[in-house]
Amino acid sequence: MLKEIVITISTGGNALINVGPNMYGKISPIFQERLRQMGSWLQVNGEAIYATKPWKYQNDTINPNVWYTSSKDNKFVYAFLLIWPKDSNEIILGAPLSSPRTIVTLLGSTADSVPWNITSGDRGIVIDVSAIKLHLLQKYGIFNRSHLNNSSIDHHFETFSNHNHSSIRKTRSKSIIHATIRPLRISHPINNNSIQRNNNKLFSISNIINTDDYRDQSENSSIIQKSSEFQTNSMNFVNVNKIHRHFLLQPQRKNVWLDNFNTTNDHHQDSKNNQKKLYSKQCLAALIISILLVIAVIITTLLIFLIKPQTTSTSTSSTKVAVLRWNTSGITIAGITTMSGNTSNQLNQPWDLALDWSNALYVTDQRNNRVQKFLMDISTGTTVAGQANTTGGLTLNYLRGPLGIIVDENSNIYVSDNNNDRIVFWSNGATSGSLFAGNGTTGNSINQLDDPYGLAHDPNSDAIYIADYNNHRIMRYFQNNSSGTLVAGGNGNGKNQTQLSLPTAIYFDSLSNSLLIVNTGAHNIVRWVLGESSWTLVAGNINGTAGISSMHLKSPTDVTLDPMGNMYVADRNNQRIQFYLVGETNGTTIAGRTGITGSNSTLFDTPSSIILDNQLNLYVVDRFNHRIQKFLRY
């Protein structure tokens, strides 16, 4: 149970307790006891649960038993440890970056810090837990870690321990727990732009869960009853921000919901004393009628499903349902529709966009030779790379036809300076850039580029991947290294599985250590696992044929994934944005209309790039309408 709760929290979730008064208008004493115990635990540990959101790493890159969340202001990050190390006094975390300022502490403890070391390769940390006592874990169960990277923002980590205590013997008592688990947001499609995914229906649980009192043999088998020692591997139900995944609770026999046996007996004795009232003639009649109605509803429902014709849908499982949908009308948040220009509130054929931690928007304003930054809800931009007067040039304080862009966690930017055949790094607030890749001359050697387009960042290694358009390849570069490494393509322009054709954009998928490549010239999206010599098809036609059906693409130019692994594609020449559920090759149009060009709020004129914010709102570069459109998810 705790594992499911933690994973739900890390991916954004909601768990509710359904405890209410009984037929006499009172909350049973046994449930009052449970609520007080949960409140005592959350008083210490609630910081890791409430007002948090999924971190950029939901699951640790080394330790699969560690999941993360972060505070909404991005100042702290929390790590949840599901399994306590049995044969080691160390906890290894691979995702966080460390610095000399890093501090590790146990939440709720008076100790200043817990010892730690840097892992091999100067990435991640190793936490020494040899000095942590079991009774502290039973009471608190959380570690705090701050200052975990080289940025000026402090990160705060918490780890939940789900350690199984083999030396503890269980004696069973009987308790009835009624619980309802439901998504925070659940809705049903009302138009053709609704995407419905099976990812667990709403469900309720109202069954007997055998909770256990633990008797500790090391303390003369005395019953542990103090609410302050309410342990982390009990069945906790807590509210969190939003739902991405829903989990079915299973009865647990590792619960430590501490109970007073006499109180339980008293509670059930009250029910026995009123047995005659419950089974009066009137109650029996009402009960029989209710049962008959329930049976009728069940039979009707089964008949509907049995006779329902088979249809194609975006569902991937008959037992899991989730809904993703967006408004079909976009909101213009940057630029002026159909009006190109070079003022601070205008754009001229923009190409790519990125979001930073504050949801500020960065746009490559290609024909104006600059990068514009738009703060949230402000339509006037600020030039953060290139020249505000739109002049292009060869020196590093100029850009010429910028295309791809990425923004790191410190709001530094990397820009594909397309017409200068180079990638330029602009630190936050700088008035001039520095050369990152390419040497400013066209070529196909390992230190040259030919028309660079899209960029992608691997946060684990800090590698930057470059779509080298006219060389039909993907190159990888590291900071302070002028030579790159070929990782995909490079075998000429072609449509077989060892070649690429005019790649325009890439997305690094850390879960599979692969690149999603927009193979524009072949009208498809392909996955190239790093280290492999060929790609596998993800969307579009494997033979490189363009088309307008849901199985085809036509000169796509961008791709991205959401936290659930669903894919979004800018199908440029079909004037639409396509959505693909995980594992599906049949796309659904969620914005624009296939083959129809226009300038109203529902149409595009050559959509070139897309991105999602942390609420899964969709942003689209509407290139020849000279604007950025935002489609709200609801």
Secondary structure elements and their pairing?
Blueprint: H1 2-11, E1 16-17, H2 29-45, E2 52-59, E3 66-71, E4 77-81, E5 90-93, E6 103-106, E7 116-118, E8 125-128, H3 134-139, E9 143-146, E10 168-172, E11 176-181, E12 194-197, E13 203-208, E14 212-216, E15 222-223, H4 261-273, H5 275-278, H6 281-307, E16 322-325, E17 331-335, E18 350-355, E19 361-365, E20 370-374, E21 382-386, E22 402-407, E23 413-417, E24 422-426, E25 434-437, E26 452-458, E27 463-468, E28 473-477, E29 485-489, E30 503-509, E31 514-519, E32 524-529, E33 536-540, E34 558-561, E35 567-571, E36 576-580, E37 588-592, E38 607-612, E39 618-622, E40 627-631
Antiparallel strand pairs: 1-11, 2-3, 3-4, 5-8, 6-9, 7-8, 10-14, 11-13, 12-16, 14-15, 17-40, 18-19, 19-20, 20-21, 22-23, 23-24, 24-25, 26-27, 27-28, 28-29, 30-31, 31-32, 32-33, 34-35, 35-36, 36-37, 38-39, 39-40
Question: Which characteristics define this entry?
Answer:
634 residues, mainly beta, Immunoglobulin-like, 2 domains, four-stranded antiparallel sheet, 40 strands, GH, Glyco_hydro_29_N, NHL_repeat, zinc ion binding
